[in-house]
Each structure stands twice: as structure tokens, then as C-alpha cells.
Amino acid sequence: MAHKISLTHLNEDKFDILQNNKTIRIDAAEESVSTGVRPKALILSALAGCTAIDVVEMLRKMRVEFSDLKIDVEGELTEDTPSTYHTIHLTYYIKLKDEDKSKIEKAVNLSQEKYCGVSAMIKKFAELKVNIEYL
Fold first, then answer.
1. Which pLDDT score is estimated for 116?
2. Residue 85 C-alpha from the chain's centroid
3. Given 3.30.300.20, 3.40.50.300, 1.20.1250.20, 3.10.150.10, which CATH number is that of 39-134?
4. Nearest to 122 by CA among 62, 35, 51
């Protein structure tokens, strides 16, 4: 299996990426005129998406009722050039019954240790710190 994307230069610092017939706009323009996302931050978005899919699927299989799932990801950059992430903080926010807390913890651990390929890749270059907050 392989993934393939196609990037097209639009103008100046703007590019469109085509993935599975869906477009993602990236750019390096100043925030006030930016129309896309930053390429480096897409790594953080990929991490959130990958683990969210895993966790929701596992909770569904465990028949856990939950609401208000949110994931925040913050990446700390080195001061070197090129700057890279050295530490990434991944925080899950979720509302569920107290008796299901062990199940969300299991789902998060399985995602991080076994299923999420993005987490596995990130761990090769950065420290990944994971936290769960209950709403």
C-alpha cells in the first residue's frame, strides 16, 4: 500500500495539495493574509486525526457512551534551522461516565502504542506526552 498526493503551486507562497480528490491549501504567508495551513502543523493535525479515529472506533466496540471528544495538540519547536518538533503534547478531552474512564485510558494507550502510525512516526523524532482530561 502507498499514499500519493499531488501539489500545485498557485502563486507566491500558496500551494494546493490534492489527496483522494480533496484539496488542502497550504501557504507560508503572514497570518493576516494566509489562506491555508502551515505544512509543519499538518503533522499535528495528522496525529489528532489518526488517534481520534482509533479511539472512537475502540470506544464504539466497547459500547462506551461519550460526548464532547476534543483533542488538542501542541508542538514545541527547536530553535535550530530547520526547526523541528522536539516535544509534542497530546491532550484528549472527553465526557463519559466515571466507570468508563478505564476504557478511554485503554483506548488511548492502544492507539498510542499499537495502532496510530502517525504517533509511531512522531516518536522517532520527538517526545510525545499524552494526557486525558475528563469533562
1. 98
2. 13
3. 3.30.300.20
4. 51
Q: Which amino acid is at 7?
A: L
Position 67, amino acid: S
**45, containing H or E segment:** helix 39-61
How does pLDDT run across 63-121, given as a tens digit for each residue?
999 999 999 999 999 999 999 999 999 999 999 999 999 999 999 999 999 999 999 99
What does the alpha-carbon distance between residue 82 and residue 11 come to, in Å, rounded to a whole number? 23
pLDDT at 33: 86
Percent of the chain with pLDDT over 70: 100
- Cα–Cα distance between 62 and 113 in angstroms, integer? 18
Cα–Cα dist 113/51, whole Å? 11
Determine the pLDDT at residue 38.
94
**C-beta separation of 15 from 6 below 8 A:** no
